[in-house]
Design a protein that fits this description.
It is built from 10 helices and 10 strands. It has about 300 residues and is α/β, with parallel strands linked by helices. The chain is globular.
Amino acid sequence: SVKLTILTRPFFAPLFNGLPNVSVCNIDLKKKHKGFFGLYKLSNELKTLGITEVADLHNVLRTNVLKFFLLGQTFKQINKGRKEKKALVLGQEFRPLKTSHQRYADVFKQLGYTLDLQCPDFPKPLNFPASFPLELIESSKHLIGIAPFAQYKSKMYPLDKMAEVIKLLSQDYNVLLFGGGDKEKEHLNIFEIENINVYNMAGKLSFEDELAIISNLKLMVSMDSGNGHLAAMFGVKVITIWGNTHPYAGFVPFNQPTAHQLLPNRKAFPLLPTSIYGNKTPKNYKRVAGTISPIAVKTLVNQILK
């Protein structure tokens, strides 16, 4: 009963395809809507859409500038919990914080829309792209995804250990590899060449097609990174391998239980988490994630799927 307009970059528009009463308003931060005057132009464009309420799920400088330009609109903003996250990193208070998803829901609650995140209604798997191999669709082996990369190396499982994980999993499953940049593609190509039942998806698909494939996975293995969240929004089971960040900060993929989180031994690494986003790495903490054994990863995959 509510019409939603999502303000985001064009690249992310496919995330909202097929949702009733939802449209996307594209923002061009490099040209048209760049800087103070660009945001003023954007605010005038938004006013023509007949928006009556704004849910700011970002709460950064740009959205605060928009709030100023949209003076008079009902404008509610996310509480990111910066103070308690700082206390978590400093070791002052080690406890699970509110999830980002609940923080989003709290913004809508301020607008009068109560959301129950306990019983989610996930979208159905999308149709496979026409180019996707038919033999994989019809195979009796489960289709699982692995996304080995993250924005910061401190959040990544060491690639030599990931090679072992891929080798172990490819014995029983069809494994799809996901990644982005040129160097990442090179690593994934090597994994594909060296193993049976392993397929590199990087650089071969549009974002929309990649989402379609992810929606059909039985399980995704990811770092504390975007691909895990993309899989979770389709109700796919996600195993997250953690390094210098920690589930307590609230960034666990949606609706994934504690049992799906693989963590280093905090007794051996008492400074964990060293940061919220993985951008700070103390000495001797560079390969923290590598203390999780490849066998532990495969064992958890088998437990979840079998």
